[in-house]
Structure formats: C-alpha cells, structure tokens
Design a protein that fits this description.
By secondary structure, the chain is mainly β. The protein folds into 3 domains: 143 residues, no CATH class; 208 residues, Jelly Rolls (Sandwich), CATH 2.60.120; 162 residues, STM4215-like. The strands form 6 sheets. Strands 7, 10, 11, 13, 18, 19, 20 and 22 form an 8-stranded antiparallel sheet that branches. The chain has an 8-stranded antiparallel sheet with strand order 8-9-12-21-14-15-16-17, with no helix packed on it. Strands 1, 3, 6, 23 and 24 form a 5-stranded antiparallel sheet that branches. Strand 30 and strand 31 form a beta hairpin. The C terminus is likely disordered.
C-alpha cells in the first residue's frame, strides 16, 4: 500500500468526475465541501486529530506531491469540511486526489495563498478575519475593512460556511484599499441570497459618484433580476449594457458568474465579442450587445454594500458569500465547469472509503539495555582518519601555539596499532574511558526517554614549551565532540546523542615530560520506546 506520510493515520480518495469537467483548467482551486463522520475530530468520535482541522491535507494521484490548499471552514462536531485544493482538472480523465488526516503532530494551519493562481485578483470567502475585516485569500492581500465593527456582520446563514449580512442601512458596507477590478478581460463569481425587499440594491461597485465608470452589480426587485454593468465614463449609456439574470426567489442561495470578454471563445465562436456574459446555476446565459464608447476604469475603491452614488447609494440588503474576482475572461466551458464544482459539488466529485495507515514496524528492545557505549564509540572512531585530517606523511591535529606558529601534533587512540612505517614515536596517546549512568531513564514525553553518558578521556603527549596547554586541551575536547556528533548515527544504532551538556577538563599536569589531560564530555542520549 502506498502511504505518503506515515504520520497520518487515515486517507480517502477524492475522484473528480471527468464528465463534469468541460474544459481543462490548470492549477484550478477545486472547492471541496463534505460533511463526513470520519472527519469529526477525535473528541467527537472521528479521526481528525486537530480540532481546527489543521491535520487535513491533500496529495496528488501518485501520493508523492503534496497539493496546495486553503482550509476555509471546519466543524469538529459535525465533520464539515470546506476548503479549496489546487490541482489541474481535465475532461479527458478522472482527477484523483488523496485526502490525508489524523496526524497528532500537525498543530498549525497548512493553508497557503499559493492555492490561488495569478488569474485571481481577489477571493473573499466572506468570513470574518476579525469583527472589522474580511481578508482576501490571494497573495494580493486586497483585504476589506468594514465601515464599523460588525457592519456588516458575519452570519452562519450560508451555503458553505459563513456569509456577510448587509441590513440595508447606509452605514453598512466594507471597502478595499483600491479599485481591485481593472479594465479589459475580467470575471466575477459570487453567491448571493436576497431577502424580500422592494428597493433596488447595489452589492458590489468601484464606480464614481455618478456611476459612469467601473463595475456595478445591482439587484432589481421590480424585475426580479441581478444585473451587472461596466461604465464608459459618459453620462448616457454604458460601455456594456446591463446584463440581467433572473433572481429565482428570495428564499435560497443563487450563484452568478459575469464575464467581460475581449477575445472570441475558441470553442464557441458563435458569440461575438467584446461583450458581457452572465450565467447562473440554472443554465441561463445572457449577454450584452456591442459596447458603447471606451471602457472607463473604476475610480473608487472596491465596495460591498452600496454604491458611491451621491444621490441614491442603493444600500444592499441580503447575504453575500464566496466572491472571486479574476483578471481573465473565463471561456464558456470553464464557466460551466466552475458552476458544476461550486453549485453541484456533490456530483462533481465522489469520496472513497476510509483507508487506515499500515502498521509501524515493531519497536526493537530498548537500546539502553543492549549496548556497550565504550565499545561502540571506540569501534566507531577506529582510525586516525576518523579524527584528524592528513598532514605530511602523518595524521595531525593542527593548531596555533602561543607564539602564533602553526603546530601539528599526532594523536592516536590507545589500543590502536600504529603503522609499521610510521616515523613517529609511540607518544602521544588518547584513552577513551566511558561510563554509562545506571540510573533509571527519564520519561520526557509520550514514548520518549533519555539517559546520560559520560566520556572520560585521558590524553598523553610529549610536552612542548611552545604549546599553550589550555588552548590545546580545549581544541582536542571540541574536536572529539564534533567527531562523536558527526558519527552518532553510525556509532550506536537507534540512539541519538541530542545534546552535549558540557565539556570540562582538569588543567594539564606534566609527568616526566608528558602532559596529561583529563577531559569529561557529558552526552545526553534520546530514544523512543
């Protein structure tokens, strides 16, 4: 069985139905929405370890590439998941994604702005970042600031997770710090729910006080329609006329996509261009006639909740959720693919059964009962080459003496047979004397224990008045620490020397022209039961 990360206890396949994909979309943020008892957190009988859903992640069909995703909403009690996963989808074959979950070590959010490709100017899931802001999920950071705290207010009335409720008051709106939507090709996706209200409403705008420029999204109760326009800066007429789509009722959520086309759709050349297209989830498709004049850029910051009109600002009353603004023209088949994903998600993909991670290999006997640290470390540092680099015809420790001169002193392990052709005398020598503490290991975590070892080293070498003995002793001690640290995985399998608690040595004493160092290195050993 293939398993991407053994830290995750469970996985499920997500299969995107190729018959619901009408156009290949590269790096498409797939909306994944699911309520699943397995996705409850462990305290509610499910298998997700994080109560925030942070241990949910996604892999490609090979289970070797971790996919970018954004976690928008998660309910640990019901197992509701609402997120977006970046992956290429195509009508030529089903797209397979693996969802992994159940990782006790994953305690931080794995969401990333890279989930949204460069075609997205702004994405608003309409949940509060705090009571005064709604954040843009893209790297562009086109965040919204509410006119006042909770105006508009976050609501649990939503198709997916959260929405912003606008009460129709002139003071209830929120603005970005720039117009966000520019001229030329553009697409706007949004979900709206409109309570019964006889007044005309403006939900989105970056127009001017006369409403001659930029974009405007209006709801017109008199005709039960949602309309979108693009201004040309003139008092009469618009660059694109209103495109109106039916607002089916005042009870349920509706989804709309408006597309400003600047080039012909290669798959549907029957549509002239440029023009403004409007789509809804019922399959209605309306489009404008030829443009009038030249498109005029919006002169105001992007606003949700009312227009910038000085005379009639048309405050919006209703709910807005999941607004996505793109700087490209979505083609006809891309539009219907997005509709299938966001409106008919239950048939756009299917979930497989839960799979359980394969068992971990058996844990070996505790290593602190089965190894001889003196022998294992000795065997690991078995030659001069393990300690010092090569000098001229000899292995040496290179250092600077008290007069600033470079000195090279050969160092040998005791009990090591010196090569017969060595011109050097038998001194100096190093003796390794290791003592393992026999006290009970300390429990420091769920399955983790540690113990301590002491390395006592006696170093003998011929006395030299040119050598600063203190510097040399520290040099030798530091060198040995580095050797043990570098070779720790080779010396004692299963044990990690995670820390050197300290290095100390007694000042050297001279005995018959030999200098003797007594160096103590305290090691801290860590292993898993």
């Amino acid at each position: 069985m293939t398993w991407a990360d053994i830290n995750y206890e469970y996985k499920k396949t997500i299969t995107v139905d190729k018959n619901r994909v009408y156009h290949t979309i590269t790096d498409y943020p797939i909306l994944v929405y699911k309520v699943d008892v397995d996705l409850k957190d462990v305290s509610n009988g499910g298998h997700v370890r994080s109560s925030s859903g942070f241990d949910i992640c996604f892999y490609d069909s090979t289970e070797t590439i971790k996919l970018k995703h954004e976690l928008v909403g998660y309910d640990p009690i019901t197992g509701k998941l609402y997120c977006f996963v970046k992956q290429t989808i195509t009508p030529s074959a089903d797209t397979i994604i693996y969802m992994y979950y159940g990782n006790v070590h994953q305690t931080t959010d794995q969401s990333t702005t890279d989930t949204w490709n460069s075609n997205y100017t702004a994405v608003y899931h309409m949940k509060d970042f705090d009571t005064s802001h709604v954040h843009d999920s893209t790297i562009n950071a086109n965040h919204l600031t509410k006119n006042a705290v909770n105006t508009p207010i976050e609501s649990s009335t939503a198709k997916f997770h959260r929405s912003q409720y606008f009460d129709g008051a002139l003071t209830t709106f929120m603005d970005a710090a720039s117009p966000v939507v520019g001229t030329g090709a553009k697409s706007v996706i949004f979900h709206v729910k409109k309570p019964t209200d006889a007044n005309r409403n403006v939900g989105i705008s970056n127009s001017d006080v006369n409403e001659y420029s930029g974009i405007t999204m209006r709801i017109r109760p008199s005709t039960w329609s949602v309309a979108f326009r693009v201004g040309n800066g003139a008092p009469v007429g618009e660059y694109f006329d209103f495109v109106s789509l039916d607002l089916y009722d005042y009870i349920r959520w509706c989804m709309y996509i408006f597309v400003c086309s600047t080039v012909a759709d290669p798959l549907h050349p029957e549509y002239s261009f440029p023009r403004l297209h409007g789509y809804n989830e019922q399959g209605d498709h309306w489009f404008s006639g030829a443009p009038v004049g030249t498109e005029a850029a919006g002169t105001s910051n992007l606003r949700f909740g009312k227009s910038y009109s000085a005379s009639i600002p048309y405050p919006f009353k209703g709910y807005l959720e999941e607004v996505e603004i793109l700087n490209v023209q979505l083609m006809e088949d891309q539009v219907w693919t997005i509709m299938e994903n966001q409106w008919y998600s239950s048939t756009f993909y299917s979930f497989g059964i839960e799979e359980v991670a394969p068992p971990l290999p058996p844990t070996p006997d505790p290593v602190y009962e089965s190894f001889d640290p003196r022998k294992d470390i000795r065997d690991g540092i078995s030659t001069e080459a393990d300690i010092y680099s090569s000098g001229v015809n000899q292995k040496v420790l290179t250092f600077t003496d008290i007069n600033g001169n470079i000195q090279q002193i050969p160092i040998y392990l005791s009990e090591e047979t010196k090569s017969s052709n060595s011109p050097l005398p038998s001194l100096p020598l190093i003796e390794l004397c290791l003592v393992w503490e026999k006290s009970d290991p300390q429990d420091i975590g769920a399955d983790t224990r540690k113990n301590f070892a002491h390395v006592d080293i006696n170093i003998y070498y011929q006395h030299n008045d040119e050598v600063d003995q203190t510097i040399l002793g520290q040099e030798i001690a530091d060198t040995l620490c580095n050797i043990i640290r570098l070779k720790q995985t080779q010396l004692i399998p299963g044990v990690s020397f995670v820390n050197f608690n300290g290095v100390s040595y007694i000042p050297p004493e001279v005995r018959d022209r030999q200098v003797v160092y007594h160096i103590n290195i305290e090691l801290e050993a860590l292993w898993y039961n």
